[in-house]
Hints:
4-stranded antiparallel sheet; 56 strands; about 25% helix; elongated
Amino acid sequence: MRSLLSPMIAPVFLGFLLFATPARQCGADEIPIAAIDHQGPVDFQKEVLPILRKNCLACHNSTDAEGDLILETPEAMLTGGAEGPAIVKGNGAESYMLQLAAHQVEPVMPPEDNGVEAGNLTSEELGILKLWIDQGAEGSVMSGADVTFEQLPAGINPVYGLALSDDGQTLAASRANQIFLYHLPSQRELGRLTDPALIEQGIYQNPGVAHLDLVQSIAFSPDRNWLASGGYRNVKLWRRQPIGVDKDIDLGAPVLSFAASRDGARIAALLQSGQIKMVATETGEVVGELGPVPDAKTLALSTDGSMLAVASESRLEWWNVNESPTQQVSAELEGGVRQLEWFQAGSQLVVAGNDHVLRLVEAMPAEGDQPAAFNIKQTFTGHQAEVTAVRTWAEGGGLASSDASGQIIRWNLENASPLQKMDHGAPVRSLAVAADQQRLMSFGDTQTSRCWNLENGKAVLQKDGDFQLDVVAQHAKFGGDLSNRLVELAKQDLDAAQKQKTAEEENEKKAKEALTKSTEDQTAKKKAADDTGKAKADADAVLVASQSKLKELETGIAAAEKTRVESEAREKELAASTTQMEKELADKMAMLTKLKEELVSTQKMRQEAVAKKQELEKTMPTVQQEVKTSEEQAKKAGEAAQKASDELVASDRALMGAKRTAERAAESVARATEQIPVREKQVAAAEEVQKERQAEATEAQSAFQQQRAAYTAARFLPETHVALTLTGAKLTAWSISTGVPMFSEALPNECLPQVVSDAQGYAWLASDKRLHRVRVTEGWSLARTIGSVKGESPFSDRVTALDFSPDGQTLAAGGGVPSRSGEILLLNVEDGRVLSKVADPHSDVVLCLRFSPDGESLASAATDRFMKTFEVATGKLIRGFEGHTHHVQGVAWSADGRTLATSGSDQVIKVWNALTGDQLRTIQGFGKELTGVSFLGLSREVAASGGDRQVYLKNVDNGGNVRQMGGFPDYVYCVDASFDGNIIVGAGQDSVVRVWQRDGKVVVEFAPPTTP
């Protein structure tokens, strides 16, 4: 199941090399490089790589390649990074990496305050590095080759992994490198798993060791036949060995009845011929014979095996079998004989007669002419029906009997009266008493069992029916309830799809209406733009004409002004000349006359220019007003045209948007329409599964409720609290202390309605001519180891996550190299083959894996703060779930496969929609890291374990606290739950495995062993 990061991930290696700016000489702080006296070549794996791991690889690895430099292999160093090769093969002095590490050039490595606490290389380390480069920088990395394991120190026993079998019967817990198995119903430890190879290697001397190092992950297959455990670079698959026939002894004739001594050393078997054979259980050999005894039907062997009682319908014979068999007494008994049970070792016998009376008899030896006879010491009356079973205990200190009416009587031995009466409720066929004499179990018709407290005669527990069929019925009911939910969800999906289709059709209708309106608006806007454009053009034409007229006036005025100025200047010049010439000689008169004429003409031109200017100036305000008016009209027309143009552009855009909206609406309608038959098929498929599951549930319940065979025999195992019962060809083991069945197995043949046990803990049964020795404890043996701590292995480092597929055929294994990579492999359970490897699933160690309920997807949680889901068939990433701010330590699917819950070192539970990847809720309020999470049955509740010494039950829909289950003095590392969520288990640093009912009531606590 779940395993925790902090105590189990290997320490992160520190790094130091960064290649950056061009180097310069350092001087005083240079670290001297020691001259190394070394025999033979420097071993890269053993001598160089540890230096790099300690000081370099945290920054210069394949994941975090600072300066594009990787220092994991010689090849990577020769390739180099941003500044070129890190080393020069055969020349350590010229190798840039060595220069930086020796502080010969800058930037020195490691830099101060580097954040990973990397320290400077020592002179000796620099010397080893230089010598290795000088020798040619040869070598390679062999994974696991330098790992040496020693025996783990005593006292390391926190529980890092828990796994509860699907049927709720078996619990596995890893403590250090040991795996403990517990039977939950009987609250017993079943033992510890042992890898024989570890004992053979001599690291450990005693069995009970599963791995060389800490077991960080364990998981049961759905059918409980396989248990997987993860260690360093390997996974071990353990196969369950069910109870079954261990040895057969052929007695040569059909067996009528058999009995064992209380110590189980001998069995006496009555054959159909009347002959009796004595069998030593330790060897299985026939060690004696006696008889034949005519008409014999049953027999009983004394506690010490020295005396044998053989009975017919009415006659009882008493044999001494210690040496040569000798018949001591043979006599008729009043009331006949139906049941025999030794009361005291070799001296007294309880005989149940045909008259419903119990008689305590003892043999009277022959005296004189009187033959040996039986003396009736006590008579026990009280049964009103046929006596079906008699049991004694404590060497005659206790006596109980049962009858066909269901009555059980515990007798007062002082006065032969009933001490306690108990009503089984159905005909009783057999009784078993615990070794501590605190509990009695009765077994009867229709597979009914009752456990009684002998102190008060009260029933502790009653069970009716085959418990395996009961488990099957419970699973079938769970499957039926789940199928009902899936049908309901499928119908909800169909209803949502139909509503979506209706909504999309309404959206499409609105989009079409908007498109029509937008088209009309665009047409109007285009006409308005055309009209305002014509008005603007007319206004522009008027403005141009006005401006042209104004320009002509301005040109005329300028020309007239120029003429005026020129004339005025000329006038002054001529006047001056005239005055001068008037003063000159008369001969200049002719010229003066001419100048005067020119002056008169010029004056006239000036006067005309002034008049022209005045005339033009009079029209100037009118033209200027015309221009101003034209400009205003042109401006207004331009603004109107711009507005119309803008509105047209907006209308065009609106029209295009309306078209796209209408197109998308049509596409959405098409998609929604396409979903309807898909959802209808899903509903039909879910309903078909529902019918199958309901039929299975009905069939399973019917099989459980139908007329059941009787428990025909019962016997408790010496020195244990385990009873065995026989029902035809099925043997069942029971916990007498709790009254619950432990396990049940079918036998090859239907057996006689008797069962006995021996001192070695085996059960003995009989069928036809044979006695069968039956191993009655489940065993677990190592089937295979996938990978190796040294040499070839599909795993790069510790296997920290395991999970079986729902069909039990595939095992998902996860792990990776801390701070460098994560890995996920899918393995074939039957033969251990690697089926596939997910490519680059995470950038750091995978801590938890969980198959989806349908087995088609795999969810992974990792220290890179991501939870992801992958397709099992292809290994393709479905989606990544990002939101945790620290390691994601646990992940769980809801039973319907639609919700995922994750627990993280950021002290929150996050709830996700598994189908869309949406984060639905963050549940906060925890004091420390959350190490594991598990959904409870069909509910919307999860159980979560954490560092604040609690197991929490939370509602994922509202984040509410359901309850807390404590008792832990320290971290809780893992949590698991039964398939229906009614049993919850948690464990952690204190090594105690705690089991609760869902209501928070403690069921049992399994403490660690007191000695290593």
